């Protein structure tokens, strides 16, 4: 296998470059600009439609507006009536970090390779 220097180009690269050059020569730079503008316009329209669909489909955009969450924290009959930052809600709803890096380091020192 030959080493390539910085100034050389592969056959595949040459064919790509020749195709692009011929495309610009045949279609002209103006057509390429129009195609780029049309593509960017399409992307903008698509992005706006995704945002509008998200806004219209999901009327509960904030978790505190969800009726189930409000019932969960209600003062009368809610399961977590003490409030969002109470000890009970902290124990049930929040995760806790456990450092397991020492065990991972010990496995690596034994020569076990892990694919994570």
Automatic annotation (TrEMBL):
| Molecular function in Gene Ontology | electron transfer activity; ferredoxin hydrogenase activity; iron ion binding; iron-sulfur cluster binding
Q: How does it assemble?
A: Heterodimer of a large and a small subunit.
- What is any one of the record's Gene Ontology cellular component terms? periplasmic space
Give the lineage: Bacteria, Pseudomonadati, Thermodesulfobacteriota, Desulfovibrionia, Desulfovibrionales
Localisation:
Periplasm
- What is the top-level taxon of the source organism? Bacteria
Name listed for the protein in its UniProt record? Ferredoxin hydrogenase small subunit
Q: Which InterPro entries match?
A: Fe_hydrogenase_HydB, Fe_hydrogenase_ssu, Fe_hydrogenase_ssu_sf, TAT_signal, TAT_signal_bac_arc
Q: Which organism is it from?
A: Halodesulfovibrio aestuarii
Q: Tell me the ranges covered by the Iron hydrogenase small subunit domain, including all copies.
A: 37-101
Which controlled-vocabulary keywords does the entry list? Iron, Iron-sulfur, Metal-binding
Under Gene3D superfamilies, the record lists: Iron hydrogenase, small subunit (4.10.260.20)
Matching SUPFAM superfamilies: Fe-only hydrogenase smaller subunit
SMART domains per the UniProt record, alphabetical = Fe_hyd_SSU
Predominant location category: periplasm
